[in-house]
Amino acid sequence: MRVFRAAGITVAAVALIAIAGSPASAGTSVTSYGQSSVDSCTSGSVGRFDDVGEHFYLTDTCADYMSAVLKVDVAPFQSYGGYDFTIWNSGKAGSTKDENRSYAEGTGVCIQAGGGDSLSREWGWWGYWTCGTA
């Protein structure tokens, strides 16, 4: 009887360690679609915040000679359209840039995708702001 009890305790302990070591996801992932300057494209860029690991993904979705850009605002939020930083993807259409950050669980994150010229930093074609949590 003691052998079964010891084995049961060992199995339970291993299961708890496995659960404790797995990443938690209590946040919300969000996606923003930037507009395109070309009629044949449904969007010029797609920005995504993934709450698992706090990754930002920015994809250039249209061969429109524009770079994809993502504005990011992290709580505490900026007022009057402000933001904390930008991510640029100057790759070819279809390329995706991955930027990893680290935030405390429950931190608010808002993103807005658009397009522009990464050299001059002129931009536009903004989609809507969307907000999630880390």
* C-alpha geometry: globular
The count of helical stretches stands at 1
From the N-terminal CA to the C-terminal CA, the straight-line distance is: 47 Å
SSE run: HEEEEEEEEE
Sheet with the most strands?
A: 5 strands, antiparallel
Query: Residue ranges: pLDDT <50 for 5 or more in a row?
Result: 1-24
The total strand number stands at: 9
Rg, Å, rounded: 21 Å
User: What is the quaternary state of this protein?
Assistant: single chain
Mean pLDDT: 85
Q: What percentage of amino acids are in beta strands?
A: 35-45%
Helix percentage range: 10-25%
| Category from helices, strands and their pairing | mainly beta
